[in-house]
Specification:
single chain, DUF4440 domain-containing protein, 6-stranded mixed sheet, 134 residues, Nuclear Transport Factor 2, Chain: A, NTF2-like_dom_sf, alpha+beta
């Protein structure tokens, strides 16, 4: 496995792990800023109109629901991926799963993510991500 692929795998692991609050773990939603370029964009494309977030708009509501008891025992993880690297840009298609308690009710789900990466002077970073749940 290439060093670049290893670095991209780690960025995805950190991103997905940022929301974990299982077994009393505190979510680290600020990790999103560490893995994205400052101008990054995250798009929820579930259902009707896409919802486009900058990093602050994405992080704020997640910080709230992951710490106020609304969403507990939450985690999400990749189950498969295909990553293509082209010089200083890369693209990844992922299938993921998630589970947790939303307002006390257990749920399980999943979906697909598409993530774009760029190489920066500080290393590889995510530049955009879009997801759709199934």
């Amino acid at each position: 496995m290439s060093d670049v692929k290893t670095e991209l795998d780690e960025l995805m692991r950190v991103f997905l792990g940022a929301f974990t609050n299982t077994a009393g773990a505190a979510p680290d939603v600020d990790a999103v800023r560490r893995v994205f370029i400052p101008e990054g964009m995250i798009i929820k494309n579930v259902g009707g109109e896409p919802v486009v977030h900058d990093l602050d708009a994405f992080i704020a509501p997640r910080r709230t629901i992951l710490t106020d008891g609304t969403l507990t025992e939450f985690s999400e993880w990749e189950v498969s991926e295909r990553t293509e690297i082209f010089g200083s840009i890369a693209h990844r298609f992922s299938e993921y799963r998630k589970s947790g308690r939303l307002e006390g009710r257990w749920f399980e789900g999943g979906g697909h993510k598409t993530t774009q990466f760029v190489r920066t002077p500080a290393g590889w970073r995510m530049s955009s991500m879009a997801w759709d749940d199934f």
